[in-house]
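Possible regression after last week's pipeline update?

I re-ran a chain I had predicted before the update to compare outputs. Posting the input and the new output here so someone can diff against the archived version. Not blocking, just want to make sure nothing changed silently.
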Amino acid sequence: MAFTTPGIDFIAQKALFPALLNYGVLYLSLYLSRLSIPQWGLILAAVLPIPGCTFVGMAYRKWRHQQQAEKLGARLAPVIDSRSIGNYKFLIKLNEAWKRGYPGDGLWGYTEEVGTIFNCNVVFEDSIYTLEPEHVKRVLATDFDNFPKGERHIEALSGFLGSGVFSSDGDMWRFHRTMARPFFSRNRVTDLELFDRHIQSAISLMRQRMSAGYAIDFQDLMQRITVDSASEFLFGTSVDSLHITVENLPQPYDHPDYHSSVEAFSLHPSNRISEAFLRAQMVAAQRDKAGWVWPLLEIFGDRAKKEMKLVNEFIDPIVETAVRRNAEKVKSNVGEQAKKKDIRDDESFLDHLASQTSDKTIVRDQALNLLLAGRDTIAATSTFLFYSLSQHPEVSTRLRQEVIDKVGPAKRPTYEDIKGMKYLRAVINGTQVFYGAIMLHTSEDLWGPDAKEFDPDRWIDDRKQRYIDNPFMFMPFNAGPRICLGQQLAYNELSLIVVRFIQAFSSFALDEAALPPEARVPTEWSHFNGHGRKGKERFRPKVLLTMSSEGGMWLKAKSIEDN
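New output (post-update):
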């Protein structure tokens, strides 16, 4: 049955329907037995068993897990207990850390208290955290079938990602995976001309902003490169978010037009889709973090609906065109032949998907899933990479020398050039460890006492063997059957971005004054001496479905042309 909001639907399924069923059974029983009780008593008798049965079910599940563990000679993961109903105090603490803290805040302390695996059990639902590579290997690879995404996770993400590859299990996941795999063949992911066009547009905008003397939101610029590249690569049609004037870019906080530019930025056509995409992602992340009771936070409305309407207004016409074009080919028997062949060189991913199914929703969902993967992950890594270069000029100098030696000051690198640039790959890998979205990537037990340091050499010297021997301690592209199909594409695009910006600019510097005050690093962070980089960080990492920088990443750069 369809209801108006996720919250009303949730209450109806969990409470209203069971209560009505209980009421009907009780009423019929009383009628047949010719007994009578007050109406209020009948209603109370219908409602009270619901929470009781819920708690009995939870207690039984806990007992069953304990029995199964004993049979296996194992023990259950220790439970974090905040001495509150449903562990709600822990959830509040964790939510505050997500909003205002540093990634890992609210969790690192428990690794010292109870070990590297623990159960948060939020709102009566087990939530297991582990920092052990062997556990991760079991979940992602060797026992993959026993660890699906699960109904709760899929429901939380489906309002944003539909039934795409990141929010599905079983046959639907295998379908999406099978359809996408041939599109990431070597000849496609090594064709760098498409990406280079968008990168050059971004460099032009950055040069204009630098000539005006103000910082640029490098994160926004990277997101424009990746969304334009990904949309053209996947759909055959670019979003063209880079086809704007420099005045339409976000303005730094120290710019006199900052306040008036904020509203103008959100209203500009090239920004509306990206902003809606980001807000929908925030809703999906908040739903996932809230656990199985997330619909109760949306009793008065579906928070993703408005944002997805804007996103779908962009992508639906493209999907409909692809489906219609394939239908026309099928009529001429060309489409049926295409299903039996590999993807043609002139065929976009959307065209290929439309040739396999005429279901527009499935086509759209998969397209959005891959757009998220192609936009946010690469944009985040390149943003943090150049932030790291701004803080470590010695790394920037060494990287520049490799670029000049291997490629030259202006030439576009080839795939073979990129393969031969070992320090470039080390810088990329180091950035992904440095800002890994999971605690595993910053564990000192695994990475050593310098885990919080930006040290590309760890991927070149003798330490490299340690990571090669234990691949499940470094997983920027996931692992096992769900490993990222676009891994090589991501490395190639990242490498091209780095090379082109290194060729265009001689130095990069962080401009903290350009950040809005609410996004700046809190003063108390400088006194922090615990896990991770919180004590020395100059920006605020924010974790949604992917990682980003709160308020943007504002950099200044010196153009090579000015040297």
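Follow-up from reviewer: compared with the archived run. The chain has a mean pLDDT of 89. Marking as no regression found.
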